[in-house]
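Hi V.,

You were right to ask for the full record rather than a summary. Here it is.
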Amino acid sequence: MNNILVEGVNIVPAFLPVDTDTDQTGDYVSLKNYGKVGVLFIKAAGTNTDIPTLTLYEATSVGGDGAQVLSAISTHWIKQAATSLAAVGTFTKTAQTEASTIVFNATSDTETLVDYFEINADQLSVGFDCIRVDCANAASAGSQYATLMYIMLEPRYIADTALSAIID
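Predicted structure:
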């Protein structure tokens, strides 16, 4: 394998930077060619009471066939700060009872944050090989910009370039 990140890892946007005052439905990615997927959520400081919630779904195709919530998030890592993440050197590991959601803490509405978690392909139900992550806010008090990216990890086959994760 090459030492260039994007030749062995595929990065796919679930949704690009957008005001999450409107709930965001992520795109699906397929884990047929990958052993696991990292989910990276980045958001700017928002308005009071706009606390985001991430929800994980599984499906049998990238078209969303048979979609259902997937309770597979037991650990996520977070960096969070009131004004600038430049002063936050490391992630804080956060354990939770295995669930399909991440509900951020009470100060996450007005603070910037980066959150990361991973889903292994073997955590999906039998016959399911695709996931998506949605973002909803608890309120719509004002603007809160965010993006969510999938980082496709552990390719099942060696190739010169990363294999597609947006086709079945």
